Amino acid sequence: MNWLLTLVFVHLASALHFYLNTGESRCFYEELQADTLLVGRIEATERVDGTNDYRHNGNLKVKVTVDETFDNDHRVLDQKSSSSGEFTFTTQDSGEHSICITPEYTDGTNNKRHKVFFDLAQGSAHDFVDSKGTKKVDDLTTRIKALNQKLTEIHNEQENLRIREATFRDQSESTNARVVKWSIIQLIVLVGTCVYQLRHLKSFFVKQKIV
């Protein structure tokens, strides 16, 4: 998703950071057109007491609100995310929008100092949907083509197997027929030889007046 957003977005604001106390809000105002997709990345940390170091806290959340200032501050987004996360929003109407960031704690902690990194990108929601949809369609088309190619290969292999089986069957039948024919010929020759030998022996015995 990250690389696709990079290609689609026509504007990418530079990342910035600022400092807030717990429950304090920082708002940014953007003139946006309808059907504009916003993607915001947030990373919030808390200051370690007595030092200038900042650390993550699992109980720290970031409240994000988006209001339509042109429509009596009509709120169109109100969500809480983890201290390191992102939010997405698509505008419904054209006009100035206020985007506010507020660090809060789930356990009621107060009076903390926070460093917040904020990065906001915007682009056409239609372009994003179309690009994402096109990629899915292209992937699906590629998979279907690959499956069709495999089916064609399997079908060709089956045809080749049928041809080889038919050829082997014909050769086997031909060989069996020749074996039977040769066996019959051998039997006839053997019987003829025996008859000849018997007649020869009989003639020999007669001449010798043995029988």
Defining traits:
211 residues; alpha+beta; Jelly Rolls; 2 domains; six-stranded antiparallel β-sheet; four-stranded antiparallel β-sheet; 36% strand; disordered N terminus
Report the strand count.
10
CATH topology description of the largest domain: Jelly Rolls
Oligomer: single chain
Basic shape? rod-shaped
- Count of alpha/pi helices: 2
Which parts are unreliable, with pLDDT below 50 for 5 consecutive residues or more?
A: 1-13, 128-134
CATH class of the largest domain: Mainly Beta
Which percent bin holds the helix content? 40-55%
Structural class: alpha+beta
Distance from N terminus to C terminus (CA atoms, Å) equals: 113 Å
Average residue-wise pLDDT: 81
Which percent range describes the beta-strand content?
A: 35-45%
CATH superfamily of the largest domain: GOLD domain
Instruction: Give a quick account of the main beta sheet: strands, pairing sense, barrel closure.
Output: 6 strands, antiparallel
Order of helices and strands: HEEEEEEEEEEH
Radius of gyration: 45 Å
Tally of distinct domains: 2
Architecture per CATH nomenclature, i.e. the level-2 architecture of the largest domain: Sandwich
